[in-house]
Amino acid sequence: MRRVLLALLLGLTAYLAAALSITTPDALYQCKPSILTWTKTLGPYILNIVDSDTEPIWTSPNTDADDKLIVVPSGSSAAWIVDVPAGRNVTVWVKDGEGNVAGTWPRVIGPGSGGCLGSGLVVQA
Known about the structure:
- Keywords: Signal.
- The chain has a single domain (about 20-125), classed as Immunoglobulins (Immunoglobulin-like).
- About 15% of the residues lie in helices and about 35% in strands.
- It is built from one helix and ten strands; from the N terminus they run αββββββββββ.
- The strands form two sheets. Strands 2, 4, 5, 7, 8 and 9 form a six-stranded mixed sheet that branches. Strands 1-3-6-10 form a four-stranded antiparallel sheet, with no helix packed on it.
- A hairpin with a 5-residue loop joins β7 and β8.
- The N and C termini lie far apart (about 45 Å).
């Protein structure tokens, strides 16, 4: 009986360790690079940067034309040049190759330079 419980516990621990999650810096600044990181599961990963001012934060990401979709083939991080105006709220979502989805709490974009707005530059970190 102990062996069965131990096996179940180890299996549950492995499952929870592999659960998809995503993190962003606590502060995001207009036109400054920010590192987005997520738990490595099965790629490819689709990052979706959603305007939280216009979409409820509790909805999972979709492919709205106003959202920023970025595909990262593998790895567990990407650098995003924050091309959103200061004062806006964004939520960052990630979807893995198995269809699992995780998101962040909304972040308010802080002030920065305005030279990058709309560029959407993301590179795998």
